[in-house]
Amino acid sequence: xxxxxxxxxxxxxxxxxxxxxxxxxxxxxxxxxxxxxxxxxxxxxxxxxxxxxxxxxxxxxxxxxxxxxxxxxxxxxxxxxxxxxxxxxxxxxxxxxxxxxxxxxxxxxxxxxxxxxxxxxxxxxxxxxxxxxxxxxxxxxxxxxxxxxxxxxxxxxxxxxxxxxxxxxxxxxxxxxxxxxxxxxxxxxx
Length: 190
Description:
- This protein is an alpha+beta fold and 190 residues long.
- The protein folds into two domains: 1-25 and 165-190, no CATH class; 28-161.
- It has helices spanning 2-6, 8-23, 167-186; strands spanning 30-38, 52-56, 62-63, 75-80, 83-88, 93-97, 108-114, 120-122, 127-128, 133-138, 152-158.
- Strand 4 (75-80) and strand 5 (83-88) form a beta hairpin.
C-alpha cells in the first residue's frame, strides 16, 4: 500500500479500473438442460428402428432477463427422423419419441430449433443469449458398431459469441487513457 501512497496516479486509476470491470457483463458459454436416451425398438413395424426418450428441465436454472426469480421456459421444435413436435423445458418434459422413419443406428442425429431466442439470465446472474438451433448426436461407444440401448447424451444449449471491439476503438480508448495518464503525471503534486 505504501507504493500506492507514493504514486497517487496509480491510486487514482484503481477505482475507475475496478468500476469498468464491474460494468462488463458476465456471459456464459453453454448450459446442459437435459438428455436424450436411445431406447431401441420402434412401433412402426421395424424392431431395429430408433426410439428415444427426451428429457428437458430448466427449473431453477434459467430466469427472466429483467424480473429476478421469474422462471423462464424454453420451447423447441424437435425433428427426429420425421417425428416433429413442440417440447418445453418448464414444466420438466419427459417424452417418448417414436419416429416413423428408419434409422441405421450407427449415429443418431436430430435437431432442436429454439422458438424464442431472447436473452435470459442464469441462476448465477450471467447473461445468456442462446443459439437458435441445437444438433444432438448419439454416436456408438468406442469398439461398438451401433448405438447401444440405454445410451444417453446430454443436450447442451450454447450461447452466441459475444462481439469483440474492433481495433480502432481499442486504439482510441488506449490513446485517451495514455493522454490522461501523461496529463496526470505532469500535474504538480502537492
